[in-house]
Design a protein that fits this description.
Largest interface: A-B, 80 and 81 residues
Distance between the termini of chain A: 47 Å
Strand order of the largest sheet of chain A: 3-2-1-7-18
Strand content of chain A: 25-35%
Helix content of chain A: 10-25%
Low-confidence stretches of chain A: none
Oligomer: homodimer
Largest sheet of chain A: 5 strands, parallel
Structural class of chain A: alpha/beta
Mean pLDDT of chain A: 96
Chain lengths: ~450, ~450
């Protein structure tokens, strides 16, 4: 257990989203003497960026409710202050206020939590009016403005990853005709195609035109917008959303002489320290230790940002806490389905030198005799050399405990369990909610049978 | 991974419920040469006894659907054959067929999986017509017969444990007026009273008269039945259900000279072997190794029966597999709520020599800004001496992933994690299904704060 400290440390945090605020809160909790300043480029401290699709769908009509919290007692927030330079020798940060000139902040400990910026494809027309990315509150307000002021009837979404499929769902909620473009052969390419196709079917079932194997090549403005893509794609639309992923916002750190790691993310160690003393980095601007791959990767996720921020905050006030690593756990809801994964998929495991087998079962989420049973598709990836669990994927009804079932796999991965030993876990059972062997364990048993008789 | 064997072993199993059938299936899977005979006292192999309340509620109208499976290829089932004697020296079992005299079965390996029998309170009137216990299919048919033939308008349930509260729910489903009697100060006394009271409130909200601190003292038959209890309880009713727990059905083993353990359950080792060579025991008739208490206990649960049976089956055909132990994970659905626990509660931890602190939080099951968020009450018990997780309890809406959240705690307990280290688990997040810190982790953080500032 961490203990309280009294070091009178001056802790400056650049960025007020998941990682930055998590660090501030943790430092505040552990050290009553610290002075904690968070400088953020916008005016939305600790807003849930993952919630933007639900604001835009109308399910969360009031954007203020997207704030994870609104109380920041004992933390000084500098809203609309963009950090423009770090001087590690002088231990200062220059921040530019939107309407108030520049300010010099001196620090004892500094956290860079600048997050990520959208990846914008290098194609013509990305700056046309009506073409939007979606990463900040201001992005969301721009899309919201267009939805309300222009009442678009159709939208094309470029990118069929998590944000793309969530926004497809959101815009159908708003009665738009939606076309979703994905580069890969199936949507949600972070899942195996067998499962990604289930999500594709779910999108189509709700009237979305899903185009896979299509990469946008350009956008033109005529009466409306016209989007062109590979495989002969050409379609007019009122609104274009670009959801093509993100890259780390690491320029500020780079200019300060801090070392970069994977994919231009800030290099960190397990305590979230950068290459320069007393400067930490956390969240979407930083590398993430992958617990399975035993290497650093770039894996920007809100959950990881919270963890890394909390650890940086603890260490900044004299604590000793290490980031245990990500296993890449993710879940998304798309209409009535939830799709989740954790760990490595087959090709990722092969690339990392494992000898994987992936096997899929279909199982009821609870005893079929109790009303409302739903089918889950559960894929288990394990190592044929030593029987170790490598990863899992589940797709099923979003009320069928898909998310917390993937978490059982995630917990097992965290502890390096073998697939067979999943059967040892004492999981809960009552007929309306599971089976005596949870689907997680049924999938493990099926994998072991397959593995023992190739 | 277990490998196939060819030993031509003659494997006899006494009992065809969870443990017996799990053993048979596992032995069949691993050893194609084995001859496998399951003798069961009734005609309902591998029926889901946990499903009886749903058959009686009408939610599962066809009792046949309670069968976990109906295919038993390669397994010889002797239905309606009750085992009456074991001769370990001769390696034989005498079974008495309902209509076909006695039969002698010889075995190389024997599994005793005779299950449990209801605990019947030693009070007058337990044998009166209209007074039922509920443990077997035949018990269920008897209750069902009375519900259909006599159309009772009211019922008193003696015992407010899992079966008691499930049957209260079931009989309300049938429009009976239900009174539930519990000996303890709160219903579902396997939970802390703070949470048990939530279940009590839920029962009352659905019109059930809940009487705690009442122990039945006798039943008389007048025009209808009249139940008497402590604290002045006296009430007439049409139907009495006794759900006062179970005891191991271990008489057969005792007569064969097999050693008994906790609470007259059959003593077993981690491979499910009894004190006599080549005789195994598994399921509700046997002891259970408690992984937290590091001792044997009597903890009859369907999940454990499946595990123990599977292990006994593997070992009976020459395998080497050990039961990893139970952490006491349980969940029950009561109307709109699910109540779950795993590990030790405060008083159990104290009795076992730990130095526990229990702390409770209320957390949303998912981001409050997304529609339909429900409150979860999460109690964490940890050890103040070393920060280790000792147990957890959750009550919340049954669609709020209570069951699989308790399983995250169960997986953490299995691996001996500290409460603080729960924050390292890479759990899934999307706003409709969780928070960046899952409620499991929010509860862990709150516990740590409390523990560090007693």
């Amino acid at each position: 257990m961490a203990e309280s400290r009294e070091n009178n440390v001056k802790f400056v945090i650049i960025g007020g989203s998941d990682a930055g605020i998590s660090a501030a809160l943790r430092a505040r909790e552990l050290d009553k003497s610290a002075s904690i300043i968070v400088a953020l480029a916008d005016g939305y401290p600790n807003f849930s960026i993952c919630g933007l699709p639900f604001f835009l769908s109308g399910e969360t009509p009031d954007w203020h409710r997207l704030a994870h919290r609104t109380e920041f007692e004992g933390i000084e927030l500098l809203l609309w202050h963009e950090a423009v330079a770090i001087d590690p020798a002088a231990r200062t940060v220059v921040v530019a206020a939107r309407d108030d000139g520049r300010k010099l902040l001196s620090y004892d400990q500094l956290l860079i939590a600048t997050g990520a910026v959208p990846l914008i494809p290098h194609i013509p027309g990305m700056n046309l009016p009506g073409v939007h990315s979606l990463h900040t509150m201001d992005d969301a307000f721009a899309v919201y403005g267009q939805l309300h002021d222009r009442a678009p009837r159709s939208a094309i979404i470029v990118g069929a990853g998590y944000i793309g499929v969530e926004m497809a769902d959101a815009l159908v909620h708003r009665n738009l005709e939606v076309t979703l473009l994905g580069k890969a052969t199936s949507v949600l390419a972070t899942l195996d195609p067998e499962l990604g196709n289930l999500i594709g079917d779910e999108l189509r079932r709700h009237g979305i035109v899903v185009k896979t194997d299509v990469e946008a090549t350009g956008i033109e403005s005529m009466d409306c917008l016209r989007v062109f893509g590979t495989n002969g794609f050409a379609q007019s639309t009122d609104l274009v959303l670009v959801a093509a992923g993100v890259r780390p916002a690491s320029d500020l750190a780079l200019k300060a002489g801090i070392s970069m790691g994977q994919k231009a993310a800030i290099r960190v160690d397990s305590s979230m320290r950068t290459s320069i003393p007393d400067i930490y980095a956390a969240g979407d601007c930083a590398e993430t230790w992958h617990r399975m791959l035993k290497t650093y990767s770039y894996l920007p996720l809100g959950t990881t940002s919270h963890k890394q921020g909390r650890i940086a905050g603890e260490n900044a006030v004299g604590g000793v806490r290490h980031f245990a690593g990500s296993v890449g756990t993710q879940v998304v809801k798309v209409f009535d389905l939830a799709a989740a994964r954790t760990g490595l998929r087959d090709h990722e495991a092969i690339a990392a030198g494992f000898n994987p087998l992936t096997f899929e079962i279909t199982a009821w989420d609870h005893k079929e005799y109790y009303p409302g049973a739903r089918e889950l598709r559960v894929r288990v990836t394990g190592d044929l050399d030593n029987g170790k669990l490598l990863g899992a994927q589940i797709v099923g009804h979003w009320r069928a405990e898909v998310a917390k079932r993937i978490d059982i796999f995630a917990a097992a991965l965290f502890h390096g369990m073998s697939v067979e030993d999943l059967n040892d876990l004492d999981l809960s059972y009552t007929p309306p909610l599971s089976s005596p062997w949870d689907p997680v364990q049924l999938a493990a048993q099926a994998w072991c049978r397959k593995a023992s008789r190739p």
